[in-house]
Amino acid sequence: MGKRVLVTGGTGFIGSHLVEWLLKKNYEVFCLVRNPARLRWLKGLPVYLIIGDCQAKDLRLPQVEVVYHVAGVVKAKRPSLFYNVNYKGTVNLAQAVLKQKLSLKYFIFISTLAVCADSLSHYAHSKLLAEKELLKLPLPLIIFRPTAIYGPRDKEFLSFCRLIKYGLAPILNPEGILSFCYIDDLIEILGAVLEKEIPSKKIFAVSDGKAYSWEEALKIVASALQKKPIYFKIPKKLTYILALIFEKFNIFIKEPIIFNQDKLKEIFHKNWFCDISEIQKLLGYTPKYDLFSGMVKTINWYQRQGWI
């Protein structure tokens, strides 16, 4: 197949790892970026920059064979931002592809396993709305629904690592079942698509294939950190109170805080385990990392960066 690929969200956690993988495989990579002065992890990489925004009505795209739509908002101070970026921005990008009549092999949308929750957060709902609209369009669409992704450059797991480092391991949902996926495994899955013939409109759940309780997951992180924290359960009502306090505190700081009452809809979901047999069969996926081996690499990277 062709070697020209467009990646949105290339300056972020998942997108930057994907861009590096594509470059190593000698793909010609185009990155849609809003601000060329803030390239972050893309700085110095041999990519073609397309200055623009997924929400722009005059969005012009290069002639590519594959689009990886990774860009999205995972935390926000206002719910409207989730819908403007994750939903409307996604639909606008897809419509730009159709308007310009790009001859794509695949339009790959990175959604989230959170769309399967009993009660949807604004983040999950915005992703689900995007999925539904994309499925209506005449696109060679593939949707990936990853579970919690972690690894170097990720900041969402960083707060838990810091808490455990200082001796605290809060169990927020004692009955909950969690699943995870290390960034390298996710990128291998995303890259495998390029050399496969996958039916359009296919939806894949992604994880490392294992299930963890909250306490098990915290103990694995503690073991990777070589710490022995105090494990304690937080009553559900108190968790909501703490989330409300964090929301009030968030007014005074610039960056949005991911821990809030809306996010608790995902935290208190009973079971995040997902069946990965389809990606194992169609993409030849074999997870290389369980939570411990992935967290060791992640924590080592955090430490080298001085983040913990």
What does this structure look like?
The chain has a domain at 4-154 and 180-210 and 271-288: 3-Layer(aba) Sandwich (Rossmann fold), CATH 3.40.50. With 308 residues, the chain is of the alpha/beta class. The protein has ten helices and 13 strands. The mean pLDDT is 94. Helix 2 (79-99) runs parallel beside helix 3 (122-136) and helix 4 (158-165) crosses helix 6 (214-225). The protein has a seven-stranded parallel β-sheet, sandwiched between helices. Strands 7-10 form a two-stranded parallel sheet. Strands 8-13 form a two-stranded parallel ribbon.
| Strand content bin | 15-25%
Instruction: Please give the order of strands in the largest beta sheet.
Output: 3-2-1-4-5-6-11
The rounded distance between the terminal residues' Cα atoms is: 43 Å
Q: Which residue ranges are poorly predicted, with pLDDT under 50 across at least 5 consecutive positions?
A: none
CATH topology of the domain at 4-154 and 180-210 and 271-288: Rossmann fold
For the secondary structure, the number of strands is 13
CATH superfamily of the domain at 4-154 and 180-210 and 271-288: NAD(P)-binding Rossmann-like Domain
Tell me the quaternary state: single chain
Helix/strand/pairing class, anyone? alpha/beta
Number of helices: 10
What is the average per-residue confidence, as pLDDT, rounded to a whole number? Answer: 94
Class of the domain at 4-154 and 180-210 and 271-288, according to the CATH hierarchy? Answer: Alpha Beta
Please tell me what the overall shape is.
globular
Query: What's the SSE pattern?
Result: EHEEEHEHEEHEEEHEEHEHHHH
